[in-house]
Design goal:
It is a single chain. By secondary structure, this protein is mainly beta. Helices cover 14% and strands 38% of the residues. It has one domain: Roll (SH3 type barrels), CATH 2.30.30. It contains 1 helix and 7 strands; from the N terminus they run βαββββββ. Strand 6 and strand 7 form a beta hairpin.
Length: 107
């Protein structure tokens, strides 16, 4: 596993993180990011999960705010499959583990 240290901020960091997550291609990836309440969330996530969704459209475009909708596996809160959807904030990422590489985001 290669460890890649990334020192980017703002839109450059968001674009880089989006590229890494898209590279995972819907497979599981690890991530750590700071939540809105300033706590760290770490876990295994997937994109493209459509099971257990209730349908409907969001009233905003998450990408306009640097967010990505993900599904969290093995969540600590004990949420059921339908409750395990999260919005991951690319701007507050601390690390990503995808496709055999670890990306550490330096501040």
């Amino acid at each position: 596993m290669a460890v890649i240290r990334v020192q980017l901020k703002g839109q450059a960091k968001i674009a880089y993180a989006e590229k890494v997550v898209n590279k995972a291609g819907g497979k599981f990836f690890g991530a750590g990011f700071i939540k809105k309440d300033n706590t760290l969330r770490e876990g295994q996530f997937r994109t493209g999960v459509k099971v257990h969704t209730k349908g409907g459209e969001l009233k905003y475009n998450p990408r306009d705010f640097g967010l990505r909708g993900v599904w969290e596996a093995n969540n600590k809160e004990g949420c059921t499959e339908g409750e395990a959807f999260r919005m991951m904030n690319y701007a507050t990422l601390t690390y990503l583990k995808a496709c055999g590489d670890e990306y550490i985001f330096l501040s």
